[in-house]
Amino acid sequence: MFEIGFWEMVLVGVVAMIVVGPERLPGLARTAGMWLGKARRMVADVKAEVDRELHLEEIKQSLRQQVELTDINQMKQDFTAQAKAIQEDIQAEFDDPGPPPGWQPGMISAPPPPDWQSSVADSPMAESAPVSLQKSPPPSAPSPPAAN
Length: 148
Fold this sequence. Notes:
- With 148 residues, the protein is mainly α.
- It has a domain at 6-93.
- Helix content is 58%, strand content 4%.
- The protein has helices at residues 6-20, 25-95, and strands spanning 116-118, 133-135.
- It starts with 5 loop residues before the first helix and ends in a 13-residue tail after the last strand.
- The mean pLDDT is 80.
C-alpha cells in the first residue's frame, strides 16, 4: 500500500502541530486513530468475505469434479461390463470345437440314434436324395425253438 517512512511521519506531525496547535493535537490524533482502526477492520472484513467466497467457489468446483468423476466411474463400469461380455462371447467362440474332421456342408452333423434307420444309402454324401429317418420296428419276442 502506502510506503510512509519515519521522516515522512515526522514531517506530518510537525505540520499538524503548527496548523492545529498543541492543545487540540491529542484529540485529533485519537480521532484519526479511531478512523484508521475502522478502515482497517473494514478492509479485514472485506478480505475475509472474499476469502470465504473463494473457499465456497473451490468447494463448489470440487463437488462438480466429484460428480463428473462419479459419472466417469459409472461409464467406466459400464464399459468394463460390456468389454467383459464381449470377451466372454469371443472366448465361447474359441472354446467351440467346431465341426468334426472331414465334415462338409450338407453332411449330417451327428450320427442318428441307434434305433433309427435311414431309408437312403449309408453314404453321408447322398445330397441329391432327401434323407428320411424311420424308427426301426421293435424286436419281436423270441420264437420258441422248433421241435424236430
